[in-house]
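Journal club side-thread
Mid-discussion, someone asked how the predicted structure for our own chain would compare to the paper's figures. Pasting it here so we can look after the session.
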Amino acid sequence: MITTLAISGYRSLRDVRLELDMLNVVTGANGSGKSSLYRALRLLAEIAHGGIIRAIASEGGLDSTLWAGPERFSRTMKSGEHAIQGTVRKQPVALRLGFVSEDYGYGIDLGLPPPLTSVFPHDPQIKAESLWIGQVLNRRNEIARRKGPLIQVRDKANLWQEVLTNLSPFDSMMTHGSDPREGAELLLVRESMRNWRFYDHFRTDRDAPLRKPQIGTHSPVLSSDGHDLAAAIETIRAVGAAEDLDAAVDDAFPGAAIHVEFSGAYVELLMQQKGLLRPLQTTELSDGTLRYLLLIAALLSPRPPSLMVLNEPEMSLHPDLLAPLGRLIAAASRRSQVIVVSHAPELVTALEAAAPVRRILLEKELGETLIRDQDKPDWEWPDR
């Protein structure tokens, strides 16, 4: 479980540090920074897949993603006595991401390339990375580090050993230093991060793939776009969770039932609704109904992730479905750590009624995202 999340210099998240529990809900007004927090989590996950540089480039490059305000606010700026203006910079330009789990902590520092040294000057470079044991990084608990092109790990004698000396500035030590013999801890953390799961955009439009028969194959994990819904539902039944599946459907749609129809190698989901003489095909189901069925398939996955992040799961759902959804998410949080980003008070209320929830309320002040009513946990970033 992730216990602490730290983000610095990303969009409105100038310096955000927050504590997490098994079930967390991030709320706040429009523009308060919920989407930025979600996207920062996705950037963290991209590190383990070797895609963080490309992910930042797709957002417009480092210049576009960096905090746009001053490095710090003076007292007179906050009081309104003086206009917001740039101050003398004391720290290098940086986008920093990190987290602490129950076992390990990890932090990464991305910065600008030296002038005239890169073919792609808007791409960031990885300046420093660190992996440590415990809650706060220090010299004694650091077990792997990267500075520039050099990766070092501690051996059994607690001495630093060089693993790589020519690491490219766009490659992470997570992907290039995770060796089962010399970098076993890096490998463990990398695989845990690769296990994180994100759901923020299910296609349910008329031409969406899930509205058509799909190739049926064992699918313990629903795809991020939901095209394999029928296969994922049938996999849930096959592993012996049919009762949980049927209960989740009945909780949201009383008297309804779903089943999968096979046609050779193809499968299609059908839904029998109370009062109808025949089951409805996915082409006939509403966007909201399909979206809820997708959430059921994601949350009842036979292969639960260490972390699942749901971005605005209430989208397209009728208010009557938010209470069942809250119960479904609460049940999933007993198997996986869950972060829900939502601006639906009904869903937040349903979550809090179903399980212990850490509510993370975001607010904006002078363009900066702040966490209301929470003290910042201790944190140290790796040195460049």
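Post-session note: The chain has eleven helices and 18 strands.
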